[in-house]
Amino acid sequence: MLQHGDVFTLRTSLSLTGITEPVTDAPGPRALIEWGAALGYRAVQLDAALPGIRPRELDRSGRRDLASLLRRSQLEFSGLDLWIPAAHFLDPAQQDRAVSAVVGALELTAELARLTSGTPLVSIALPEKTAPTLLDSLRSAAELHGSTLADHSWPSRGGEGPLAIGIDPAELLAARLDPAAEVPRLPVTPAAARLSDYANAGRVAPGRGQLDVLAYQIALSTKGYRGFAVVDLRRVRNQADAARQALEVASSAP
Question: Among residues 7, 26, 101, 192, which is most buried (max CB within 10 A)?
């Protein structure tokens, strides 16, 4: 976090999740990582469901190569995204597979964090009716691997400890809530915070919707948040331009 007078600017990371438009000439996660670095981002959040990043697909050599690419690109590792559909945590036929995916992501983020001096964090969204026993299992898995699991649903099932709170402004705005007003009401400091925006019944590039970016940054800072503002481009149009604009919006002071 940087401070310019009374203006607080959070460090910005680019989530590579949900980037479906052709923003690079080459396919694959490595090209996306290099693209993020070329835009001027100094950190990235990887997609644990993306081919080439999935925990079950990366052996030790692959993980070291990925960490080496991040270091060469001068990018910090801010964690992993794992947006499993909420219904999978509730369906007995899919729950074990969903939990296994979370455990794999927790293990991978811990290893990548060690290799890069990054952040061992996994961002997810849990359903409202998640069973207490399942929450306990996820909490134990995060603690075992020395990672943090940040729940970005609202209201979050997270709290203090390895199962923590994540903030996604677009989700709050869609529910007609003001993120800058809701953050101070949280019982604890969030472990993760997205930089997302919402307008006209859909997600838009940060700075083009209803989010007061400066007020949101100040609310997070006042709450004690010292992590990254993770730019989230899921379902956003013109993603290449949106990524550039988000970086400018997040780093500029009025």
Answer: 192
Domains identified in the chain, total number: 1
How far is Cα of residue 11 from the mean position of the Cα atoms in its chain? 13
Cα–Cα distance between 249 and 206 in angstroms, integer? 7
CA-to-CA dists, residue 249 to 149, 181, 222, 253, angstroms = 27, 20, 20, 8
Question: Residue 10: pLDDT band by 50, 70, 90 thresholds?
Answer: confident
Average pLDDT over all residues of the chain: 93
240 CB contacts (<8 Å, ≥6 apart)?
A: 21, 23
**pTM, 2 dp:** 0.93
**Beta-bridge mates of residue 148:** 121
CB 170 within 8 A of CB 154: no
What CATH number corresponds to the domain at position 113? 3.20.20.150
- Residues across the chain: 254
Range of the domain at 16: 2-251
Asked whether residue 63 carries a pLDDT value surpassing 60, the answer given is yes
